[in-house]
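User: Can you fold this complex?
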Amino acid sequence: MHDLPLVVFTILSQLILGGFVTLWWIDRKKTRISRKTGLLISISFLILGGVSLLVSMLHLGQPFFAYRAILNFGVSWLSREVTFYGAFVGLILAYTWFWYKDDRAKRSTIGWITSSIGVVAIFSSAKIYMIPAIPAWDGVSTLFAFFLTSILLGPLFVAAILAIRGEVNINISGLSVLTLAVTAVVMAGYFSSLLAGLPEAVETARLTFNHIFFWIRLVTFAAAFTILFLSYKNSKWQNVKIYSVAFAVLLISEFLGRVLFYETAIHL
Amino acid sequence: MLADNVSRRTFLKGSAALSTLLGLGAIGSKATNGLVPTAAAKSNSQKQQFFNACPRNCYDTCSIVTTVEDGRITFVTGNENNHYTKGRLCVKGNTYPRIVYSPDRIKYPMRQKGRGSGNWERISWDEAYTIIAKKMLDIKKEYGNTLPICLNKYSGNFNILNYATEGMLSSIGFTTRAQGTPCDPAGSDAQAFDMGTAYNNDPEQFMDAEYIILWGANPAWTSAHSMYFIEQAKEKGTKLVVIDPLITQTASKADEYIQIKPSTDGALALGMIRYIMDQHLYDEEWVNNHAIGFHEFVSYVKKNITVEWAAEKTGVPKPVIERIAREYATSKPANIWIGFGMQRHTNGGSMVRAIDALAALTSNIGKKGGGVNYIGGETWGFNYHTMSFGAPEGTEGEADRYVNMNNFGAQVLDAQDPPIKMMWIACRNPIAQDPEPNVVKKAFDQMDLIVTADLYMNQTVEYSDIVLPVTTPFETVGINVSYWHYWMNANEQAIKPLYETKSDLEIAMGLSKKLNELEAGSCTFPVSGNLVEWVEKEFNDDIRKLFGVKSWDELRKNGGTVKASEKVTVAWEDLKFRTPSGKYEFFSKKAVEYGHHPLPVFIEEYKANNEYPIRCISPHWKLGIHSQFQHIDWLGAIQDHPFVEMHPDLAKKYSIRENDMVNVRNEAGYLTLPAKLTKTVPVDTVVMYEGWWKDVHYTENFNVKALPSDMGDYSKGQRGIAFHDNFVKIEKA
Amino acid sequence: MTITQETVMKPEERSFYYQLFCHYYRGDLLQLTRKQWKQVVQIIKEYQYTSLLDEVAQSLQVLEEVTERNIQTFEYDYNRLFVGPNKLLASPFESSYRNYEGNVLQQETLNVRNFYRYVGLQVANEGQIPDDHIQFELEFILHVLSQPTIEDHRQIYKMFLEKHLLQWGFKHCELILQNSQNPITHAMAVILKEFLQLEGGNKDVS
Amino acid sequence: MAKKLGFLVNIERCIGCHACEISCKSFYQLEPSMRRRTVRELPEDLVGSPVRAFVSTACNHCDEPACQKACPVGAYTKRDEDGIVVHNQELCIGCQMCGKACPYGVPQYNPVKKKMDKCSMCYDRLDVGESPICVSKCPMEAIEIVDYNEVQPSGTVSLVPTFADPSITHPTTQFILPKPGKQFRRA
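Assistant: Here's the predicted assembly.
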């Protein structure tokens, strides 16, 4: 699939943002995270960030000239995305440095800036796709979808690692269940608006419903919801396995959803 | 020629051993086949422009300007000096760079071991000439004459110098020739009976017409440059009527489109004539002074034709026939263009005579902007010097023997005393283009030697023993005129011929040389000569006077194109017809001589039978000319597969949906191709476009029978083919 | 297998291969008998690089064991691949691999011509046969290699190889391997491919 | 005042012959799949009774080009003097966002150059007083360049069936729709 690099990049970047904010938030709240674990998570973001940047370049015809992509900052959302996302990953590096230095105050400040820049980066990322030429993309649902992916995957990722490290047992399932519910509502609204929209939008809906990925996504979505709901209700279900499984299932679900996002886009 | 000594010094044992083994010197020693020291300063890298002439079998016969840089073509476009081409080429002409520089051209003379096997070996020109010449001489020895040698050459390249192939074969004695044409014969005979010959007005005069009827013609696809003038005329107020069984691209542009039942055009013309006679809208002075047989014609019409009958026959409502008749008769000048498709019926010639009569009695013939325009040949009066050498002294026999090009396979098989043993094919792809290709293949099987000269691999080359690589127009010299417009175009050599390609004329000279080497005096064709000298020999005083240009060289130096004197551009302006009577002949004794009714009468159309109820029309396709161009990938990117057009209502009857594969079948054969549903074709007819052979194992001719049209033998020697009286059944594949 | 720095050929070995393939593409090997093919293999085997590569060794064995039938169909297959009259299955012209839609005599051809001109050479029938036929490219390299008197002859050799032959040679070999119906054309393509691989050295030339 | 150049495509004249498309391709020596101008078949019931109708389109040189907004490297510029939207292939990094953002899908990815490509209205020809290839090579003279600041031709439309809403990018291309003729079809 031609847009695969973009699928990987958007999912990764959104995961990193959600994860980063989660880490920063927990750390800021004076919850004890050991230096080693903090560093580990922070470095994992850095690695994922690097991977995401490399993958995104695969989408270019001229990857060696990717740096030029910031030239049209004044006009192009893609330029802004590249700039802000680049800054975001750069700031994660600084943030990581202060984990290494174990300087919590500086971490907190830098984390705050990083998070804001990250949010702007993902906002820019969504704006790239909100174009009238592709009716299925041209709406706030794209914005919702991107940030909901962040909120779904990021915190779970961090929770899973924290659980693995056996450090802090944060109850993330409440947030996740809520996000999943919101996602379900957004999806329902999205498809009904597609069906009521331009012929190209209707075609997107038709393609989506006829696509096996859509049904796998629904099933994985329901499975994740069930697991997380049980986890929310029952503290026994708040452990490494559950978080890891839920994360994996949701990652698949989101990935397939994003594949569909690109695959079923019908140009005017 | 490379410094051999240096090479030898450097090559150690392996290289030396290899050279010894191969019996060759070191690489570089073969001057003609390798790198040599630079002869001169780097070739001229400046932009040069040359004039070329599109030589295809096409109304438009364009004048081309070719841009050459570093000895290679970088752009090919129309010549602005030619007011018909107007500096613009059709879509096909725009693909010429690809045609010249495709790596898939036939590059060398080659011999096939086993016809159709695909096992080819490369031979030199000398070997090719030797094989061919020996076979010719053997045949002459065995049969005492050269009649077993058959030439099948037609319209792939109308460069006047290309008649060298005919000339070369005439220079060895009498041979068998594929005679006739699948193109225009019935209509040309009709016009020959009526007026002495087919002669059309300059198409630029569409601009002068008050009223235009395009009768079974689709210039939007087959003559884009004419379509320009028609559209311009329409925009300034000329009414454009299109009569056609199909809503063609041209019909889509008409002010009024009349869908007629196929093969009933004569009935429509006669119905209009009846109305014009009844209403006294005809030119009495004209028919009395410039025509004969009008009274006989009137009595035929009054006795046999009514407008009601015409309406019934043609499917065109009576009020429409009457209105069109009145409009046509009262607009001056009114112009009719009769397309070739209309006469490809068993009653085609007589239908053209009826339309001619319509134009005659309204005195539209001989008028600028008017006319009953079909085809013309007024500008073709060259010397045909390449055909002027005659048989060698002591040749047995009296004349060439003819087989009908339109029933080629069967007639070749039938030919006896002597049988046909060798075939020369040039400018033609008979296995793709002839009706009943399987019979043609059978005829090929009977040959001892089949030689084909062509540019690209095609079905006929696949089935040949020897293939000779030929040049594109850009690699040779020539002169071209049109059977439609009145321009003469020079063709300069713009680039060197690629690989070992040669023009038909060069091949003729080469073969003659070999024949004379093997048997002195066996061929009268010159064995050498400069192409420019050859082309200059085509000019005579009539041509010089007609075009006001002294020579080919003068033509090429002055814009590459020139239009004939205004005098000839209005057909029959002097009303001196070339009939036996010197007048327009409503009543033609010549027609009777050829077995026809003397008058333009209606002949019943060929009808479908119950088993094959659907008419199958195979018109020309916009992205090709016959089997040429359609295999070019630039055009393949626009349309990459053939299809059959059918009306949605017909498709529904057979549960066929868009793009479903459909079997189109009759007694002659079948083919399977995807359906394209369109309301532009009538419900009882399917349409397949002619000339598609790329990537399929059939052509549309697989179910075309060699059914003759009614006329053609007077002016062309043989009757035409009723291509469009082809009936089929269809089924979902 | 991976090619290491050590496997770089001796100059005379390199020249020999250029000579061999130049002959091949000139059609000089079409007339060889079985016995002569054996001899060719013997000559090749004297060089070390063949022993380094399994694939080449296998191909040489194929050449050693060609049958009369193989030799008979060799020319037909060779023509189907490189000569015609059919649509070529493995065009021997550089430009048909590199420019828009595979036309011959395009800008790439002129670039090749400039190389020839630079050392004072040209194709004998320039303008008639595209200068970038593999036969000429091979001959050009052979010439440059054998002329130490040419200024910068190493650089010219390297540049030409990188800018031209290696740019399309592999694709060409691939097409032969895909379409070959004869063991000889197949074996020669394997040997050429491996030879070009070696010429490409450690550089990542695709 | 600056010019506002745009194509005027006369569908009434267009015979769907593809000469514009192929002459452009030949002149610019574009790769096989590349088209700076394309001829498309229109629905056959366009004017009511069935006809064969085609429309030829290239870049619409929009007033508000979506390609320009999408391009991260600023490879697109709209020329001040005449409004031609020019793509600078030197700068292009082949991200293909312009192709997605253009409602007409005009910028095409060139798989050989690995960059985008689109019609430049042959500005270099216009600059020296020659007309664009498609304009000068259409056998029907169905394509023109018009300065829409100078003339406002009557009876033209900016929307033809199957086309994107012009309010998105304000394309400068205008079309002359075919006028329906009379038809007498057999029952």
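Residues 1-11, 28-32 of chain B have pLDDT under 50 and may be disordered. Chain B has four domains: 1-39, 110-179+397-481+487-563, 185-377+570-593, 614-732.
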